[in-house]
Design a protein that fits this description.
Bound molecules: SN-glycerol-3-phosphate, calcium ion
Helix content: 25-40%
Number of helices: 12
Strand content: 15-25%
Strand order of the largest sheet: 1-2-6-7-8-9-10-11
Distance between the termini: 16 Å
Radius of gyration: 19 Å
Length: 301
Amino acid sequence: MGITKPVLVFGHRGACGYRPENTLESFELAFIQGADAIECDVVPTKDGHLIVRHDSWLSDTTDIAEHPEFADRKREGLVGWQMTRQDWFVEDFTLAEIKTLRATERLADLRPGSAKFNGQFEIPSLDEFLAASFNDGKHLIIEIKHGSHFALLGFPVAAILARILGESNWRERGITLTIESFDAAVLSQAKRLCGDIAKYVFLVESWGMPSDRTDLGVAAWLDEIASKFDGVGIEAKQLFDDGSLVSKMHDRGLLVYAWTAKVEEAVASIEEYYVGFINLGTDGIFADQPDLLAELVAGLS
Ligand code: G3P
Ligand code: CA
């Protein structure tokens, strides 16, 4: 097995292989387990706060279905390109209402050890997340979720983020920040409003890849990203499919982060699975089980 170089380990939604995702308990565990940074997702509430959740709908990762007082707010809502679902949506709830919910494990069958914690942890606001002392001196990665969707609904998420960051003392506490989004317009807006306080990383999955995959097409696509942002956070599959992408990104000065390593996807051995990720040559890897990846990476350093 040819290992090329060590890489940073990012706790994806904290240590979401072990605790319900995007909770303070999940984030703290990721740092205890040796993560170099932790990643969280943010969405807005009805009253203009940001909370740490991955989706605009609430039933997959909270106990909202067990709250009869909110039963009448279940409705059909947009969750993607021409896709709807019946659910409860974050934009219909105030922060105070969100704080009455508790987090649940998204993948309860796959991760029963995490599901044991269902109902125990609060849904953090971004303010609470930033204030947590376990983040002191650490690197935090904040992903703005569904930016265009919320812009259409009238939520200026990048502006809310800039306000919250401006009011927090994270810089005095030695925290470093990366801000990410799949939405280039929202990420550019965040960069304009927040300035050089953070690195800005553009997220890419299959639908974000260029339609012109010739050398010229890929070069033009990467040149444009490099003219706007500091890095690319890319679905690992795209890198496995095209082994030249990482060096092309590095040639343009872009950081390259790959997502997401999850041991449940290992086909042969867990070590072989992680080594596949490490050998991609990226600067960082998002991992649902940061302890296992961090242990392997530490053995290489
Ligand atoms: O930050 C990279 C990764 O988190 C993006 O995908 O769906 O897990 O937010 P997702
Ligand atoms: Ca994310």
